[in-house]
Amino acid sequence: MKFVAFERAKQGTGASRRLRSTGRTPGIVYGGAAETTLIEIDHNALWHAIKKEAFHASVLDMELAGKEHKVLLRDVQMHPFKQLILHIDFQRVDENTKLHMKVPLHFSGEENSPAIKTDGCLANHVVTEIEVLCLPKDLPEFIAVDLSGLKKGASLHLADIVLPKGVTAVTHGKNNPVIVSVVVIAAPAEAPAADATAAPAAAAGKAGAKPAAKAPAAKAPAAKK
């Protein structure tokens, strides 16, 4: 993925604020043998670029001063509530040096798996990205994960994923973490029939009811003297 950047001479809070008011985003490029370079990028172009997955998980081609540089996105600072990118950082890439990157996982086929299609289970995506170690030329934009073989009572682990050539997963001490777990959906309990509950209740009500009191008899009229 390619983007265009321009060198900037001034730095500091005031200079960055003035730059943003002109529709540009300040940034830096660091790493490698060269010194840190101050850059600016058109904000609208950058805003659309950061919405693309490839901008975050692949080696980028940055055109700067007529030359092309291989870089990785390392940090984006956003405004707390405005749709505004405050600052952006890139790291230069050495084609002969392995790099650590987080790569997204793209899942497919779960609707055709026995666990989901036949047994009515759910696939819980425990992990949606993994960290990898590889040379820049081997860095994948994403890693495809086929879930069509999921079965009830089983989970998909990192060792079950086929990684691209030259790519090694970094687990930070976790031997074989779960990527997708199969969740069994409990069947809802059947509600008791209305007649079965109504009858005992009615019978209990009759048994405990007291007989109704008789109305007092009317008095006969007094005899005339």
User: What is the end-to-end distance?
Assistant: 124 Å
The ordered string of helix (H) and strand (E) elements is EHEEHHEEEEHEEEEEEH
Q: Rg, please?
A: 35 Å
Largest sheet: 6 strands, mixed, barrel
**How many DSSP E strands?**
13
Strand order of the largest sheet: 1-3-2-6-5-4
Helix content: 10-25%
Helix-strand category: alpha+beta
| Strand fraction | 35-45%
**Uncertain regions: pLDDT < 50 for 5+ in a row?**
none
What general form does the structure show? Answer: elongated
Mean pLDDT: 86
Number of helices: 5
Notes on the protein architecture:
By secondary structure, the protein is of the alpha+beta class. The strands form 3 sheets. The protein has a 6-stranded mixed barrel. Strand 4 and strand 5 form a beta hairpin. The chain is elongated and about 65 Å long.
Offer a quick outline of the entry.
With 225 residues, the chain is an alpha+beta fold.
Key descriptive features of the protein:
single chain, 4-stranded mixed β-sheet, 5 helices, 18% helix
In terms of topology, how is this protein built?
Layout: E1 2-7, H1 13-21, E2 24-30, E3 37-42, H2 43-49, H3 53-57, E4 60-64, E5 67-78, E6 85-92, E7 99-108, H4 114-117, E8 122-125, E9 129-134, E10 143-146, E11 155-157, E12 168-170, E13 178-183, H5 194-208
